[in-house]
Amino acid sequence: MAKSSRKKKKAQQKKNNAQQNSSKAQNTAKVNEAEEAAKAAETTSADASNNTTNNSQDKVENNTSQHTTETNNTYTTRKEEREKKTPFFLNVEFARKPKEYFMTYIPIIIVLGYIPLLMRTLTYSTFLEDYEWVAADNATQVDVFLKIKAIVFLVVAVFTLFIMLIWFFNGKRNVFKRMKSVPFYVIGIAVLFVLISGIFASNKPLLLLGGFENFESIFVTLSYFIVMIYTFILFSQSDSIYRDMQFVYRASLPGFLIISIIGFFQVFNLDLFKTEFGKFLFASSEYRQPGASITVGTGEYTTLHNIDYVSTFFAMWAMIFLIMFTMSKNPKEKIVRAALLILTLFDMFAAGSDGGRLGFIGGIIVLAILVSVKSKKRLAIVAGVIVVAIVAVFAVPQLRNYVVSGIDAADSNAEASYRIHHITPKSDGVYFDLDGKEYTVAYSYDNNTLKVDLKNADGSPINGTYHAAEGKQPQYIEYSKKDIGKNGLKIYETAVSQGEGSKAVRGILVGKQGESLTFAVSNEVDKSGEYYFTNPYGRFVQNDGTDIANAHVFPDKLFSSRGTIWNKTLPILKDYLFIGCGSGLFITAFPQNNYIERMNGSTNYDVKPHDLYMQYWVEEGLPFLLCMLVFFVLYYVMIIKGLVVKEGGITDPANRRIAIACTAAVTVFLVAGIPGDSMIVHSPTFWTFLGLGMAAGWTELRRKKRA
């Protein structure tokens, strides 16, 4: 019984254990199912949550992107408005570049806007006192317009050369590779002939330092090329030539405005430089003292020395302002540029120079051709209009003489009106003519009493009345107008000094005191006893200059009497077929000993030939002139090639217009150079515009090749 009871208990316990295990298994299964369900629910919930989050994020991002776009658009609009309103130097467009970048443009700004403005009284050595056609005591002069400009220009050129050397040795040698082209090779040859002519120049001080109304020394001539090359390299590597040109144009504008406004008032005889305040601006202290005077100029000379350079200077700028006006989009800016153009044209025409007018016409013609070069039909129309206009101008005498003054003048033969045509010293006296009759004069002193032997053409003596010395009046012999000349004649005792420290030479003075036709005669100049006479500069000479070669090709009055200078320059060109006389030395090459002409007119020296191309030939040699002509032709070819673009081709309108403007300005200088020449007052402007035009043309040509 007991065993049976224990068996039942064990069986019941197993049963209970089995039930418990089954229950545990079910619970475990339920737990597992619950956990899996929970996990599934979590996953679903997470996915749903993620989807919700992603959608929310997408919405936020879209909203943010939309807001950013709107903000950027608003910023762009505000930026454009701000650029229109802000002053130039705070303009965002220019602020994008570092200051160091725009500092490289400072030399160009100085050349264009401020070198032409400079004036200062500076004393200089002429280096001409050893020439017989210069007064012996004329060793120094005072300059107002030229020397200060030359000094500053040389400093600027050295600074640009220093910058280019930094580029070369500081990892920017690639920028010089663009100079590996025919035009720059030609320039290199031209520079070589400048140096060769300088090496063989006879007057080295004048060559190196410049002087006497011409400070285009050899260093200035070489600096023209340096500034042109610097301008070309600087602008050709710019990513926006128009932007950088605007910077230069605006920064140089104040100086240009001062020059033009001074000239404007001079047209109405309101000359700033003839007032006490004006003298204070340019004259040193000794010329501001009471009673002191300094000669500046006449007409509209402004700060540019004389009307010829004024007219050409403003004509070049007129081409720039004309194109800049067409590029203006802002109405206010358009008005300002229109006003500048009008002021420039007024100053140019008011100056009244043949060269400026002729250069302006040439610039307008080239500008019209370049604007039309893209269309053959338009080009043909423009060419036809130009031909008709030229024919019309030269068909009307008034217009013809306005454009080219003196073109209708016959060879004036000014010698016909001279009272004296020759003075010829010989061993027995001095032969001369007066009012159409020939005479001979000789003299001697007998116990300090003057004895004069005056004879007419047939050797008959002419008697006069002797007057002894009285007070400061020297002894003299007077001849009535019945015996000699229209007004009679007086012959005085005299002594002439040939310079400071030299011994006075005794002789006689023929003429009337105070008359321009007075000259001294002496046979005591040297031990030979030969007779000499004094030229208009007080030097004893034996040649009166009547044997100077004259080509008689041009009317003497052509281009305001430039024909006279050209006729005397043509015969000396043969002397400079290989090398020239040297930069700035035309004054020493030209026959200045035309004493009879100077006695009957002006005693001013011919410092320049008043023709750019004759100047190039005489000063640097014929090969230099040929090199420059080839270079200018290649420049125009490059510009035209850059402007001619096939339909659909890639081009930059701003670059094209800059190239056109600069080429028109270059044309002004080259055409005005026919009756003009190179001078430090306006030549730096020309060479800068030439470099800028080359940069714009080269950029367009490269763009065309890459397309």
Describe this structure in words.
54% of the residues lie in helices and 9% in strands. A hairpin with a 7-residue loop joins strand 10 and strand 11. The protein is built from 22 helices and 13 strands. The chain is elongated.
N- and C-termini, Cα separation: 119 Å
Low-confidence stretches: 37-46, 48-61, 67-72, 82-92
Shape by Cα distribution: elongated
Q: What is the count of β-strands?
A: 13
How large is the count of helical segments?
Answer: 22
Widest sheet: strand ordering: 7-8-9-10-11-12-13
Strand content: 5-15%
Quote the average pLDDT: 85
* C-alpha Rg (nearest Å): 43 Å
Biggest sheet, in brief? 7 strands, antiparallel
Q: Which structural class is indicated by helix and strand composition?
A: alpha+beta
Helix coverage percent of residues?
40-55%
Q: Top keywords for this entry?
A:
707 residues; alpha+beta; 13 strands
Q: What's the short version?
A:
By secondary structure, the chain is an alpha+beta fold.
List the helices and strands and how they pair.
Layout: H1 2-85, H2 92-95, H3 99-103, H4 106-114, E1 122-125, E2 140-143, H5 147-169, H6 182-199, H7 204-209, H8 218-236, H9 241-267, H10 276-282, H11 307-326, H12 331-351, H13 354-371, H14 376-395, H15 397-403, E3 423-426, E4 429-434, E5 437-446, E6 449-456, E7 465-467, E8 476-479, E9 489-496, E10 505-511, E11 519-522, E12 532-534, E13 540-541, H16 558-569, H17 586-589, H18 595-599, H19 612-620, H20 622-643, H21 653-672, H22 683-706
Antiparallel strand pairs: 1-2, 3-4, 4-5, 5-6, 7-8, 8-9, 9-10, 10-11, 11-12, 12-13
Helix pairs in contact: 4-9, 5-8, 6-8, 6-20, 8-22, 9-12, 11-12, 11-13, 11-21, 13-14, 13-21, 19-20, 20-21, 20-22, 21-22
